[in-house]
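Researcher: Structure prediction, please.
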Amino acid sequence: MPGTGPAPKPNSRTRHEPQRGRPKNAPGVGWQHGPMPAAPIKLLKPSQDAWATWMAAWFAAHWTPSDLPGLRQVIRLYDQVERGEFQRASELRIQMDTYGITPKGQQDRRWLPPKESEDAAPRAKPALARLRVVGE
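Model: Predicted structure follows.
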């Protein structure tokens, strides 16, 4: 019967360090190890665009040169799906998660975008319109 037994403890959060560690912000934006690596040859235009987008994204700052062979395989899978081989879509999703390209993969790795620096100019607030009551 519901409602029997002691009430739950307030703030019953665990106080141990998460097994995968604390979330960490990216050290920058884009590929951090020299010039951007070239995409594999014979890719469709959308796949080349995806490669360039991935290499320029904030999550690419977490990748190392040792990740490049795997990333080349991911873009080849992406290219196959672009060509209509949809049976590869599940494998592509798993590989994109593995390299932190998807939001789920970023969450699994505890990756966060880089922090905005305190020195940056504050964002301009939108001007609020002055409202007034018009005659009754």
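Model: The chain has a mean pLDDT of 85.
Researcher: Thanks, that helps.
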